[in-house]
Specification:
Blueprint (H helix, E strand, L loop, with lengths): L1 E2 L4 E4 L9 E9 L2 E9 L3 E8 L5 E7 L5 E3 L6 E4 L3 E6 L3 E7 L1
Parallel strand pairs: 2-6
Antiparallel strand pairs: 1-2, 3-4, 4-5, 5-10, 6-9, 7-10, 8-9
């Protein structure tokens, strides 16, 4: 859900459970470009999001039911509990979320 006027992109990954890997690369949104990489194993899901322009805010929203805990760089990613979901918010050039199953 890009919101170019606010320089914000909301990402809500919804991958089929049978998929282990997927990517969406170099998607241009106004003066930014993002790439999303998804890797799933038996123990975790790793989401990596790259963006060119760090003036933009990325909000990655994941259902709580998809993971037991997570591993992130807490110095550059904020976390907000939203009831049934968790939102990870950042302006990083590269963001890596490791969601433990």
């Amino acid at each position: 859900q890009p919101m170019a006027s606010k320089k914000m992109i909301v990402i809500k990954p919804q991958m089929p459970s049978s998929w282990n890997t997927a990517s969406l690369e170099n998607v241009e949104i106004a003066d930014n470009s993002i790439s999303i990489y998804y890797n799933s194993s038996n123990t975790e899901v790793e989401l990596k999001v790259n963006q060119e322009n760090t003036d933009w805010t990325l909000e990655i929203v994941v259902p709580k039911s998809d993971f037991k805990n997570y591993d992130i760089d807490e110095n550059s990613i904020s976390v907000e509990d939203q009831g049934n979901t968790v939102m990870f918010k950042t302006t990083n050039k590269e963001t890596i979320l490791k969601l433990k199953k």
